[in-house]
Design goal:
12 helices; 16 strands; globular
């Protein structure tokens, strides 16, 4: 199955007035795809191939830097929520969550995820995008950014690509809200001043380029929606609501959006957090050969951005979803508190307060 591509141009050109029948139908399609697949491919005229390439070029250069240089940008005392997270720190939830392990052992063989043997062998860089709240209970989730020396273009490149991807998420969030029968700003009003993170990953394919290597073990994202630009190396598998495993092919010029745990909370499970993994596949091997022949970088960079609900906002089923029989599984919780609980499970919480 190919994940459908939604062109956001029609919605963007509709303006602020009443949503016409054609756009309403497109919004229902967006919410339907998110519900059934947990993923959506979009084309946003404001996010160009050149923007994505400029970002990937800079991140490849950074990840190719020496190990000791990259460790200077590490901030474990801030839960790794800014700066760099070295390889071997992020623990895939499937490694520690027994309920999740039982679930995938019961899957048909062809739908089972690859089983990670330890922490993820990927680096990640966290860069906060958008304004911070002046008053918040969750200061460490809204910390100042870390800029590596020797990259004068860093801030502008990160901010520019981050803001463009946030803009795309906001449009999809509005369209999804309309499609779910909620007010247009039901989601975006809760996203204001959220701790959105541009969080590109870097995987060294020279060291970890063997077929079957797990870069990101089977997991869901804890945030609201996640968006990625197209990577130069494929390898992402997603699981549809019906349990089927699908390898995602992102067309040139498109962005991939995935559902996170916060949208599941707000819709009382009508839209589930999408399960996914990143592994070295035969298609990754083909891309490695091509890159080697053309003397290109062999770091697999994903331009991932995590869009969050604001830390001090309350996560609870919205509108008619509050009447759902499943709403009792999603009790009200402060978004920042929810994030801290989830980070503790995947080992990013650090040892705050301990000597």
């Amino acid at each position: 199955m190919e994940v459908p591509v939604i062109d956001l141009a029609a919605y963007l050109s509709a303006g602020e007035g009443e949503v016409g029948s054609e756009v309403s139908e497109l919004c229902r399609e967006v919410s339907g795809i998110l519900r059934e697949t947990g993923a959506l491919l979009v084309k946003d005229p404001r996010c160009t191939v050149e923007d994505n390439d400029r970002f990937l070029d800079m991140m490849e250069k950074y990840f190719e830097s020496p190990f000791h240089f990259k460790r200077l940008q590490e901030r474990p005392n801030l839960h790794y929520q800014v700066g760099v997270t070295p390889e071997g720190v992020e623990i895939p939830r499937s490694l520690v969550d027994e309920e999740m392990q039982e679930k995938f052992r019961a899957m048909p063989k062809e739908s089972q995820p690859s089983i990670p043997i330890g922490p993820d062998p990927k680096w990640r860089y966290m860069w906060r995008v958008g304004p911070r709240p002046s008053n918040t209970r969750f200061q460490e989730l809204n910390s100042e950014p870390v800029i590596p020396d020797g990259f004068p273009e860093w801030k502008e490149t990160m901010d520019s690509w981050g803001h463009k991807m946030i803009s795309a998420i906001e449009v999809v969030a509005e369209m999804a809200a309309i499609g779910f029968g909620l007010p247009k700003d039901a989601f975006t009003s809760l996203m204001k001043q959220g701790p959105h993170l541009l969080a590109p990953t870097g995987c060294d394919l020279r060291r970890y380029g063997k077929e079957g290597t797990v870069f990101a073990g089977y997991h869901y994202d804890l945030n609201f929606l996640t968006i990625h630009g197209r990577s130069r190396f494929p390898g992402l598998n997603i699981w549809l609501r019906n349990g089927k495993k699908v390898e995602v092919k992102v067309p040139v010029g498109c962005l991939l959006i995935q559902t996170g745990k916060q949208i599941e909370w707000l819709t009382a499970g009508d839209c589930l957090a999408g399960m996914h993994e990143v592994i070295v596949t035969s298609r990754t091997i083909d891309a490695i050969k091509q890159a080697s022949e053309h003397n290109r970088s062999l770091w697999r960079v994903s331009s991932t951005l995590f869009a969050h609900i604001a830390s001090d906002a309350v996560l609870k089923p919205l509108g008619h979803f509050a009447e759902s029989p499943l709403s009792c599984k999603y009790p009200p919780i402060c978004a920042g508190e929810f994030v801290e609980q989830e980070l503790a499970v995947i080992n990013l919480k650090g040892n705050k307060g301990e000597s």
